[in-house]
Predict the structure.
Amino acid sequence: MMDIKLKTGLFSSFCLILLFACHDIKKTSVEPVKIIFDSDMGPDYDDVGALTMLHAFADSGKAEILATMASNRYSLVAPCLDVINTYYGRPLIPVGSPKTHGVNIGCSQHWTDSLFSHFPHKIDSTAQAYNAVLLYRKILAAQPDTSVVIVTVGFLTNLNDLLLSQPDSLSPLNGNDLVTKKVKKLVSMAGKFPEGWEFNVKEDSTSSKYVFDHWPTPVILSGFEIGMKIFTGKKLITRGLKSPAAMAFGIAIPFSKEDRNGRMSWDQTAVLTAVQGPKFAFDEVRGEMIAEPSGFNRWINREDGRHTYLVFKKSPQALSELIENYMMHEPITLQ
């Protein structure tokens, strides 16, 4: 009979080998989520927190940022996107912006001016950014089929124009067919559920209606009622960090009495859902969002619906802490 100590030792060694093997499989089998981030950065500052989170996910290997798009024609949107990308060591991430039409809304708290003047960047005006539609087409054409997740936390201007785009030297497909082939899903901070008015939908209501009527892949919607219960930023601005997020929140939070407990965190929930998946923190209601020409949105429950909207599974307090921790992420070189 084999000595019991030898048997135990062999079993322990086998378990250790199996553990390491499983660990290696887990590390190599999880591909980063390919993300295009589309933002109206300027009217609010939760966009800064959202893009900071996305860089934190990228540094951990959970996300790959393919591009950052401005959906707002305000002159400092693209420069601020470039500031954040550069701060986190990714200055080559391309930045796009609308070229033919779109909303132009500035920043009442003037944190965009501070980021522009304080941090390195190579883009000095939103007008200098790439044509957003051409950048979308170029990037999507180069990616594997059904591999890209688009995250919108602003106006739907660029996505409207993408769907309406025609075949060109970048792709023989029109916009609708290119999205169908290359996009896995759209995650959008848009709407109020089951019905109501929401800023991102209302400000370019024509584009919103077209996108939500015609988008050909699954759509996950994080509504106004989700972000309004998640407060972040107070911890961020007391930690002595020198990041763009710390500066933006540090300037803007004292600006408004409604932010005394932190800023409502709409855009961060879309990034969290895009990278981690909705089941990580939320349940989903399936159906169809109807965007009216006025910008008002309604909801129809439907088992075979193309859309879902989020409802809380984790508590807003737990999500506040989680999101704020991501927002306090520092570049790898500073860690």
Q: What stands out?
A: The domain at 31-334 is CATH 3.90.245.10 (Inosine-uridine Nucleoside N-ribohydrolase; Chain A). The longest helix spans residues 4-29. The chain has a mean pLDDT of 91. The longest strand covers residues 282-291.
